[in-house]
Amino acid sequence: MSPTISTSSEANGNVSAETAAQAARAADTGLQSVTFAKALNTALADAMESDSSVLMFGEDVGVLGGVFRITDGLTKRFGSSRCFDTPLAESGIVGMAIGMAMNGMRPVIEMQFDAFAYPAFEQIASHVAKMHNRTKGKMPLPMVIRIPYAGGIGGVEHHCDSSEAYYAHTPGLKVFTPATVKDAYLMLREAIDSPDPVVFMEPKKLYWTKEHVDLEALRLSHETALVPSTEGRAAIARSGTDATLIAYGPSVSTALAAAEAAALEGRNLEVIDVRSIVPLDDATICESVRKTGRAVVIAEAPGFASVSSEIVARIQERCFHSLAAPVLRVTGFDTPFPAPKLEKYFLPSVDRILDTVDALQWEEKA
């Protein structure tokens, strides 16, 4: 089921009958309307409450609560020794986290914006990713690098990069990117619990989206292991039979909207939410593609040498004899991220996805 997204009409009080009915049903079951940002904030607080070795630091994450307020209230609740501000030095932030993780702590750090992490990339690629292997398994690094990423907020370059391919290409790193409020909570809890370093990619445009969830129930289900791990497990966001749309992070909601529009044209599209880029769930992706025979991979990042191109390659290798058409992609263009007024042309859209679906060789050649 697609998440319940807040809209401008709702903000103005023009709530539809369907939305009101959903809210009533949610109230009856104890669910609350929760934002993506609130789910992340609660996950951090719950992790810090359950494990004193978990701490949070980065630029402006203390008193201010972070640029996107993901760490709001954590310093007040846990003190400045558990959630604190750092100098504007990303390499130093990561370096300090490495030392802490080597000495029994579980640091969670925020890079503030995607491209701001680039000064720390040497630390991440040379030390974070390699320490476990370098020490022959004797020294894991349980740390999480939170990176708000991708577009959809009208930002400029250095604030809207899709940098997931750099981390996915670096052996030794796990790479997670949630697309729903529920997954935002569960995946961040799992990332913090992981004995290995996780690059946690947070789609900025989703911070203000909402779903009806029970955060307390999620906490209990995670801490009692009642829900399956999301690591290495894609999710079927929408079932279908005619073609498979494969997306992750910020592109999942666009893929779902495209599938809804395609249904009006008589096409039944399945949508796969990758969730865990590394490790990647080949099994779920390939099972869907073998069923439908057609696939489109959707991502905001430029297409060349990308996560989307890796997914295409793996489908071609594993599902070749099940394909009725070549696997196609809808991605950002191979250019730097554009100015805000041009952003809508750069990002994957419902129209671009539907045009690509139309190109999947639906008619048999004579």
Automatic annotation (TrEMBL):
<feature type="domain" description="Transketolase-like pyrimidine-binding">
    <location>
        <begin position="34"/>
        <end position="209"/>
    </location>
</feature>
<dbReference type="Pfam" id="PF02779">
    <property type="entry name" value="Transket_pyr"/>
</dbReference>
<dbReference type="InterPro" id="IPR009014">
    <property type="entry name" value="Transketo_C/PFOR_II"/>
</dbReference>
<keyword id="KW-0560">Oxidoreductase</keyword>
<dbReference type="InterPro" id="IPR005475">
    <property type="entry name" value="Transketolase-like_Pyr-bd"/>
</dbReference>
<keyword id="KW-0670">Pyruvate</keyword>
<dbReference type="InterPro" id="IPR033248">
    <property type="entry name" value="Transketolase_C"/>
</dbReference>
<protein>
    <submittedName>
        <fullName>Pyruvate dehydrogenase E1 component beta subunit</fullName>
        <ecNumber>1.2.4.1</ecNumber>
    </submittedName>
</protein>
<dbReference type="InterPro" id="IPR029061">
    <property type="entry name" value="THDP-binding"/>
</dbReference>
<keyword id="KW-0786">Thiamine pyrophosphate</keyword>
<dbReference type="GO" id="GO:0004739">
    <property type="term" value="F:pyruvate dehydrogenase (acetyl-transferring) activity"/>
</dbReference>
<dbReference type="Pfam" id="PF02780">
    <property type="entry name" value="Transketolase_C"/>
</dbReference>
